[in-house]
Amino acid sequence: MTIFEDTAPRSPRTYPLRVAVLGCSGSIGSQTLDVCRRHADRLRVVALSVRSSTERLCASAREFGCAHVAVADPARAHDGALEGLPAGCVLSSGPAAATALASLPDVDVVVNALVGFAGIHAGYAALAAGKVLAYANKESIVVGGDLLMPFARPGRLLPVDSEHSAIFQCLVGESPQNVSRIWLTCSGGPFYGRVRAELAGVSVAEALAHPTWRMGAKITVDSATLMNKGLEVIEAHHLFQQPIDRIRVLVHQQSRIHSMVEFVDGIVKAQLGGSDMRAPIQYALSYPDRWEAACERVDWCAADPLTFGEADEKTFGCLALAREAGRAGGTLPCALNAANEVANEAFRRGLCGFLDIERIVSSVMDASSAERVESVEQLVEADERARALASAALLEVRP
Length: 399
Description:
The protein is α/β, with parallel strands linked by helices.
């Protein structure tokens, strides 16, 4: 199933679009609310979810007059802050609460900004209910692309990641069969140019010092290991119907070119812009239209020169592991992702070294098989097995 509109006439959108923002207190969720403020005549926030940030949830619910809110952590469901929710606002709690918001009848667009594997349930529910899914939860596609993509009707699954939004924009009006190669750009993270020996003792603070983007802690560490780019390779494979080996990672430190598509005739299309996630978020909400800019424009006369380099998969082995998992397919990307989530968190907590992230993921992949994906329940089981293996591997590398 293609995610692109065909050439048939489209019915005009009815505004305002009713939006649910899942994970509204995180980086992507907060910037989504910025876009909704700027375009209040076109976007109406009707539902919000958080994991545990109840004060921010309550403040946003009052600001936008939300009818539904959800708190994933049941221990926070009775926080005093929630007494300030607007009148008539329905509160739900528990791990399935955000998923329930994704299929509400009074929601048109679901922005899935949840972090990690848990977001697959909400993404699946949104697509199955016929909603437009603007998703930043790349793990959903990495782990469950075989399940989710058959539900992806044209114009209903819109990527929020800057790179995949760029590829999507380059492919509008094009046929996937005419693609020769996808150039997936990468800033290189804070350790670009270092050799492997220099990475052994890097600190959490160094790994979190991303040179161009401001993101949540988990994705920032993934960017430092290049696992984030590896996950994006698998994501692009599913979204754009391209083999893993046609997706090339290109280091572009200025983060001005967000990705490129090369066609069989040698023509290359690129999408350029500032390093501001509000731009791809807004495009996912406005598609197929374009609205006035939600972020500062780039002065190309004053911009730094654009440079390019090769991604070093020997030094940053997580990228190579992700490619391996993507080629194998089945449930192996699920094992890769689960192991990475465990190892990433352990590194941030000081329980392992930076290079141990790669070692743990490699160990789990070696102990896992690539089974054909048949259900969400199967993926949950594969995820749990991989987390158990990763936790055991962590005990062997702990300092």
